[in-house]
Specification:
The protein has 448 residues and is α/β, with parallel strands linked by helices. The chain contains 14 helices and 14 strands. The structure holds phosphoenolpyruvate and manganese (II) ion (MN). Keywords: Amino-acid biosynthesis, Aromatic amino acid biosynthesis, Transferase.
Amino acid sequence: MTSLLDPPAAHAAQTSWRRLPAGQQPSWPDAAALDAAVTALASALPLVTARECDLLRARLAAVARGEAFLVQGGDCAEELDAVNAASIGRTAGTLQQLAAVLGYARSLPVVTLARMAGQYAKPRSSPTEIRGGVELPVYRGDAVNGHAFTAAARTPDPHRLVRVHHTSAATVNLVRAYGAGEHAGPGQVLAALREFTDASPERDRYAALTAEIERAGGFTGTGDGWHTPGELFMSHEGLLLDYESALVRLDPATGGAYATSGHLLWIGERTRRLDGAHVEFFSRISNPVAVKIGPSIETDDLLRLIGRLSPEGEPGRLTLVVRMGAGKIRDVLPGLVERVTAEGLPVAWVSDPMHGNTISAPSGHKTRRFDDVLDELAGFFEVLTGLGAHPGGVHLELTGDDVTECVGGGDGIGFGDLPARYRSVCDPRLNRGQALDLAYRLAELLDT
Ligand code: PEP
Ligand code: MN
């Protein structure tokens, strides 16, 4: 609890990270323009409220206790000029359909969390990109610069931060409207699953589960008093600290500082260093937070990270998003889970089966094999279940649109199909059919 003698929590959250090394921040060419953008954001309206963030934290506490399952997903990178109502509706719908399948398969209430309304900044492996002898700054997401390979597009422009806020506010507004409206009802979701099953080359394989879900009436957990089907929370990687800290607001009711750009923010694999600015910033906000962990993490560093991000050990505060790769998860994850469990640290374990399984297609497209994604998920469930811990959920890059970015799945998309509808400006997403294939196949695996 903050006492009146403490410096206001919001001020600390906005400033303390500035003393520390901040990875993956753009070199903004125009300091005055950055100041203007940050000033505009500092008085902008919040996208979410502190009480909603608290509600998500309570939902995630149920995940950490093994009493609920998390379905998190959306674009790798949203695009300011491409965002549109139909696509938002399709992606939100896909998340609800996944929630229905996986909630039924796990017999658990589902927490649904979109990677949406703020997922505009990307960590990159190199600061520049060379093409045909020309070197330009790398694309860092629409919050920073444009994707086109021209000097003008690639120059970081701080005004984009203000556009991200506006566009994210409009996105949140639309999702809330869909969530409250007829689109979100169990009837819609069941009809969508029925339509998917009937049209699928795998319909014989999926029909029995679809019928069972229909008999059960869709969502599990609706009767226990807390799960509402239209409830969809918003999340993104909290990468750009100027943006995130400008949107921190003090919650008068609790004295806590909340990041108001989304309900949950996560720290990426590349910016989770213990002595870095991101961990410092995240340690000062009261939202539920997550951190991505890859195969190189040392157990002691993970324990320190948990200590920094969740010093009070409150369930729901911290979610660990594991992204090891199908070939590594069964070797690397057990030691981590054993130690965290032995120390009695209440975290939610979630699998991101996407980021450890990225490959290059012969055409040069970045892609992922459906079978690798499913195999990493299977490994995640094997490890957690085998150790008596709770496999708490999935974190997927997906879209409701009919793109061709990942290979495999029921429709048998091959390398040669990728150019047809490869739309992602960053990592490859599962399309709606592939995402549902994954849910059905996972349900089948978990049933055997
Ligand atoms: C991402 O989620 O798009 C991402 C960059 O992930 P990670 O930090 O796990 O590499
Ligand atoms: Mn990605």
